Amino acid sequence: MSISKALLSRRTSGVFWSPGFVPPAWAGLPSVVTVHDLTHRHFYSRLHRTYYDLLLRHMYRRCTAIVCVTDCARNEFLAWSGIDARRVHVVPNGVGEAYVRNTQTLDLPYRYVLYPGNRRNYKNLDRLMTAYAQSALPGKGIHLVLTGNADQNLSGLAKKLSIQPFVKFIGKVADEDMPRLYRGSLFVAFISLYEGFGLPIVEAMASRVPVLTSTVSAMPEVAGNAALLVDPLSVPDIKTAMNRLADEPALREDLVGAGVARARRFSWDETAAGHWSIVEGVSQAA
Question: Which stretches of the chain are DSSP H helices?
Fold first, then answer.
């Protein structure tokens, strides 16, 4: 509502663009909104789902154009929204140059597998931790590092699995330190149950680090042939993949080479140009 009031108070011409997922209830001018995913409909409360279905869907239908970040996200959005496919575009996310340029690590005093991300339930951290506990990695002294502070659920699970000494919650990491944290890892494990894109995949690839990710939603589309993919619901599959990435240097080397090439496809400059082209087209058609 506040977006709509601000737009109407300006009484201006042009195009409204939001990089977030919330469109204006009414704008008085053409609007473009970027929708990264429909996570709230799947993994949040019934109230979130109702909000999307009863309010946001109608607001999206009033938008001149919608931008999604993958074909997977676009297909899901189209099936849910019923919007004319000609109004829904794909512009992928990019990866920051800091990850591409960086050659340094944080010099942590142990080898580690990295999970970079939040703790929402669809991130599948219980299965990741269980697979890690069943793998050969703890016995090899390879730790599991998670960004963010320790929480009761995961700390309790680590204790139950007898891997507490090997699970490190590294706390909040400054943006400028993230490339170094990635670069120092043996591989990045990002086996989420759902993503509209999955930025850690391309950030790891740009950092010259192998990637373990999921066979579901947008992750195979983003990863291409440059990651090791597993069924995120199968702890045995995850465990086997972790063992392979720890034990097979040739596999890691192949994935790093493919990942560097893959990451070049995701540029924030190209992302900006793609958005601008859509906004400009909307403006010219107004």
Answer: 2-10, 39-43, 46-51, 57-62, 71-81, 97-101, 125-134, 152-160, 178-183, 199-206, 219-223, 235-247, 249-263, 268-285
Query: Which amino acid belongs to residue 264?
Result: R
CATH tag for 97-263 (out of 3.40.50.2000, 3.90.1010.10, 3.40.50.1240, 3.40.190.10): 3.40.50.2000
CB of 31 closer than 8 Å to CB of 3: no
Chain segment 48-89, per-residue pLDDT in tens: 999 899 999 999 999 999 999 999 999 999 999 999 999 999
Cα angle for residues 5, 279, 52 (degrees, 5° grid): 55
Place of tokens 């066979």: 215
pLDDT in tens, 84-142: 999 999 999 999 999 999 999 998 999 999 999 999 999 999 999 999 999 999 999 99
Domain ranges of the chain: 2-94+267-285, 97-263
DSSP 8-class letter at 139: G
Q: Give the three-class secondary structure for 109.
A: coil
Fold adopted by 2-94+267-285: Rossmann fold (3.40.50)
Two tokens at 123? 């991130």
* Within this chain, domains 2-94+267-285 and 97-263 share the same CATH topology: yes
Q: Is residue 88 within 8 Å of 78, Cβ to Cβ?
A: yes
**Concatenated DSSP letters of 182-202:** HHTSSEEEE--S--SS-HHHH
Whole-number Å distance between alpha carbons of 197 and 201: 9
Residue type, 219: M
**pTM, entire model:** 0.93
DSSP bridge pairs for 90: 68
Rounded to 5°, the CA angle 202-207-213 comes to 40
